[in-house]
């Protein structure tokens, strides 16, 4: 199951830089994760400074 980004997202871009499969993109107003591209590695959740990313 893909990771999801909550409304707590501050759109800092940390998750975009760390994602090994480029599954995260800019949304409006928060970033979004492409569920089909996400490999459930959790690197984005570990890197998020506001803990806005969690397993879906």
Description:
The chain is an alpha+beta fold and 56 residues long. It has one domain (3-55): Alpha-Beta Plaits (2-Layer Sandwich). The chain contains two helices and four strands. The protein has helices at 14-18, 43-47, and strands spanning 3-5, 24-25, 32-33, 53-55. The protein is globular and about 25 Å long. The chain starts with a strand and ends with a strand. The model has no long low-confidence stretch (mean pLDDT 96).
What are the main properties of this structure?
about 55 residues; two-stranded antiparallel ribbon; globular; alpha+beta; Alpha-Beta Plaits; single chain
Average pLDDT confidence is 96
Strand coverage percent? 15-25%
Q: How are the strands ordered across the major sheet?
A: 1-4
Quickly count the helices: 2
- Count up the domains: 1
Percent of residues in helices comes to 10-25%
Order of helices and strands: EHEEHE
